[in-house]
Structures are given as C-alpha cells and as structure tokens.
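Reopening this ticket.

The earlier resolution said the output was attached, but the attachment link was broken on my side. Pasting everything inline this time so it's all in one place.
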Amino acid sequence: MTDTPDKPDKGRTRSAALRAKFLRNTDPPSPERVAAFKREMMLERQREGIAAAKAAGKYKGCAPTARAQADAVRQLVAEGVSKSEIARRLGMHRASVHRILAANSKVATLSL
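Inline output:
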C-alpha cells in the first residue's frame, strides 16, 4: 500500500490475479471453491500485513524470557535445586528449564 502513483501496489496485483484466476473458470462456483478462494485472499492480506509490520519494525515476536535467565538456571542446578523448583522460582515452565540445560550440554559436547 504505497502512496507513490508511479509504483504499482504489489498486494493488489496479486489479489487481482487470484480473482481473475477464480473468475476465469466457467463452472459455477461451488461452496468449497468459494471458501478456498476467500481463505487464500485472507492469507494473502495477512502475509502483506506481516511484511509491512516487519518492515516498520513492529513485528518482532515474543522476547526469549527463559533464555535470558539461563545463567540463573545453571547456577540453581549447580546448587542442587530440582528442576521443578527452579521453574517455580524463576516463573518459567519446567520444559524451559530442560531446554536450557539440554542446550548447555550440547554446547559442552561440541567444545570437546
């Protein structure tokens, strides 16, 4: 969705191409075909919106909060605290504790 008149809007041309492909068929549209067409149009608009948000720097995903506490997890493991207790203390899921420790062991084996 650009404001410059000399550049064509790529999103609209793709959508127009999809519409033309859908309308080119002379068979009467079945409910399944209509639903598939609408879904494809929705997904195309969604992809365009995500691309625009990424370009604007607003689509970054979730911050890796568990990985930020990896040092604390390793320290508590060294102190002998159970993995469930570590998860409770640090406010993360038990699987995150296991993932951090597994990544730590992979790094240790790679450095050997």
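Reporter confirms the inline version is readable. The chain has a mean pLDDT of 80. The first helix runs from residue 10 to 24.
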